[in-house]
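dude i think i finally got it to work??
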Amino acid sequence: MRLPGQLVFGAGLSALFLLAAVLSFLWTPWPVEGMAIAERLKPPSGAHWLGTDHFGRDILSMIMVGARTSIAVAVVAVGIGMAVGVPLGLAAAANRGSLLDEIIMRGNDLVFAFPSLVIAILITAVLGPSAVNAILAIGIFNIPVFARVTRGGALSLWTLDYVLAARVAGKGRLRISVEHILPNVSNLLIVQGTIQFSLGILAEAALSYVGLGAQPPVPSWGRMLADSQTMISIAPHMAVFPGLAIVLTVLGLNLMGDGLRDVLDPRLRRLRA
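look at this
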């Protein structure tokens, strides 16, 4: 089967930043916490490929370490959303029209009534700025997203013949949900997980930008942008390269999500054929 070009390109971009994050555990061009005032605000050069910031720190090294911060926050936050949201969505679909279904869906509506970034800022402002609290804030907003996607996909499956046959065979709702429903909505969850991963990176950058994400000395793309705003007229590279890192990573993940949707959706496969 021929893979869509957007899937290949998106996966390539995502893999590039994942490789940079993994490599940063073993090697960076310069120590990320090393300050060299004599080298401050240097433009890109042979010694510092992406230049230096206002403390003389190497921007490429900070972007590499910042990649692992963003990826770690997004992965755990999406994991929280899946771990809680998917069971809630399965339970709501299995008990459609019941009090449990109403409670779950109205709870989702309550969370969706507030913008995700506002919720994240509220939680981190109350609990204190840190990467852990940023993960918690982003993860909480992911819960209703996965609950809605799971419930929507599962509802259409509960009316199919093989599910009715399983019910006639004496299987309970929980067993049917785990054995028959969950495997058949996994393609939707994979695509949605990719999308939420990219949104998680954006949310982490936004929280760090306003000082509510990962705290110094841990590098973060959002805080690098915040630090650059007063220097942008004399050292534009301080803003350009962290901004490009965010844009390219989110672009790669979104393209990969669209490509996965095309591959995993049988209807789209038939249209392509």
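Residues 228 and 236 are 8 Å apart (CA to CA).
im so relieved honestly
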